Amino acid sequence: MISRRLATFTKVGAVTLLLGALSFSSTASAVPSAVALSLPEKVQRMLSQGALARWYAQHPEQVSAGMRARPDWIAALGARVNAVPRALAPGDFPMRRALFNRDDLGLPQNEESVDRCSSNGNLVLAGTNDYRGLLNPLGNFTGWHFSDNGATLTREGLLPAVTFADGVAVPSSGDPVVAFDAACNAYMATLNLVFVDGVPTHSGIGVYRTTAGTLGSCPGGDDPTCWPTRTLADQVISPDPAHFHLLDKPWMAVGHSAGQTVIWVTYTDFAVDFPNVTTTIKAVRCEANLTSCGKPINLSAGGSDVQFSDVTVGPDGRTYVTWVEDRITPNDGETFVIKLRVAEAGSSEFSPEGVVTTELEPIGFGGVLHANDFRVATYPKHDVKIVNGIPRIFVIWESCQSRPLNVICEFSRMRMTFSDSFGAGWSNPTTLSAGGDNYFGTLSANPGGANLAVAYWTSRFDPVFGNRQDLELVTVGPQGTVVNRQRLTTPSNEPEADPFLRGFFIGDYIEVTARADNALVAFNANYRKQALGLDASLPTAQQDNYLAQAPL
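Now predict its structure.
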């Protein structure tokens, strides 16, 4: 069988080396090699890109020999890029009006989250993994991108560091999530990580709050005045190289519950008791002003391999959390069991675990699409909409039509099911996609409209190779039927075109948000050509974040 470990290394190893080459170095005493050189395989296989970046940066021996020279190239870029200011590339290019950054360095952005304020549609906030953070002195890596006109960029920057209990300022480290409350206060959640000698000495889930007025007038960059209120939903300080925690893959929901604004953050806790690893989905509730957060709540049962939590505060005030449990058998490979728990409005007590569905052919951790090289896995998402006076839970996920060797995903489909009984029963799953490979699914309940918005990448417009991707927006009725399809990108995007990341990493997700039948989708593509910040470089296609708008 093809090694999942090899698949993981080849897809993410080079990218993570690039991240670490400029900003992160060892400062503590050496860790015994048996520990420092062997982050458990389960962690490498399931951990998010932002977290893996810090570890691989200190362990180039884990990357294939052909890639080990690239940190020298990146270091050269770091030494010279600031001395060669570049204007944004002139001329027209596909999707120009949707570009949502001012990157003049030719560095990538990916892994987008987006929200629009419900009471002022001109206020839009997006988040990214922003590789301009490679040049940030503190290593801040989570990008924010703000518009006060609903379409074009007003200001952007990097989330500043958050101070841990021991006084260490820990940089923002990717995996962004954004949200507005009803008063248009802006929130973001992110990883905050420091690795020393291969050990995550500081691992946290940062939560940030600001106002639209502050974002519109602050200096930008990682100036802390742009995000003056910052806290940690959870933090772990682990000085022992054989016993540590990695907090990973956060998601956040801001909503109204039992008469007040609440913030819920969910994430995965990788607990390493070397060489053993346990994973737990956890949830934390924070006050709207971030003055305090509750104690972490364990949501997943012990002994299971879990990842990819998603949290929603529904229009009924209840809190809904889904995640995947990864089950592996030697003959059948990976099976993903999608789980659900629900808390009543105003409560932090969740219902017992329920099963949404058991996906026998997921895109597994370390799996690949048949015509692409980038990192991808089945990542369920959900939202809640009132239908006939009852909260209906909709869940979407990716399912392979065929999976040779239990690794190669052929023609992944976007599937949907729903429940009117808080998970006690589910509709028969339906397929929303229409051919090709379909992945990075995202959905929005579209408050104020009759239908839902679902977006995803599809290769169906590349029938010859199945490699190039297009963003498809699907209007879905409350019974799970497709009402309309829209192709939002033209021409098709070549995901491997960026010279910096190539086909290694395009993020782990994109996001759609919709309200009153108007949808926004934040995504990344390689349409723009920009010199890579070197005096001898020529404009080449680069990975940028974009913001597409469309009526449902």
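The first strand starts at residue 109 and ends at 116.
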